[in-house]
Amino acid sequence: MFGLGAQELIVILLIALVLFGGAKIPELGRSLGQAIREFKKGTDEPEAKTTAKEGEPKGGSS
């Protein structure tokens, strides 16, 4: 995983624990997981929903 060993990950987690505190770590993990899910959901949706159909003006109805 990115060339990081167990010791490096432990050091990073300890630094995060010191900086954010024990109560904030689960909240940060939860929000990061939610952001990743939303990103995957957005990339999995077909482009037809996000782009205008061919032949229709992009500016809306006129």
Distance between the termini: 52 Å
The average pLDDT value, as a whole number, equals 79
Q: What class, by secondary structure content?
A: mainly alpha
User: How much helicity do the residues have?
Assistant: 55-70%
SS field, number of helical segments:
3
The tally of strands reads 0
**Percent of residues in beta strands?**
under 5%
What is the H-and-E element order?
HHH
Which residue ranges are poorly predicted, with pLDDT under 50 across at least 5 consecutive positions?
Answer: none
Largest sheet: none
Rg (C-alpha, Å): 21 Å
Overall shape: elongated
Written overview of the protein:
By secondary structure, the chain is mainly α. It is 65% helix and 0% strand. The protein is elongated, with a radius of gyration of 21 Å. The chain is built from 3 helices and no strands. It has helices spanning 6-20, 24-44, 47-50. It starts with 5 loop residues before the first helix and ends in a 12-residue tail after the last helix. The chain has a domain at 7-44.
Task: Write a compact overview of the structure shown.
The chain contains three helices and no strands. The chain is mainly α and 62 residues long.
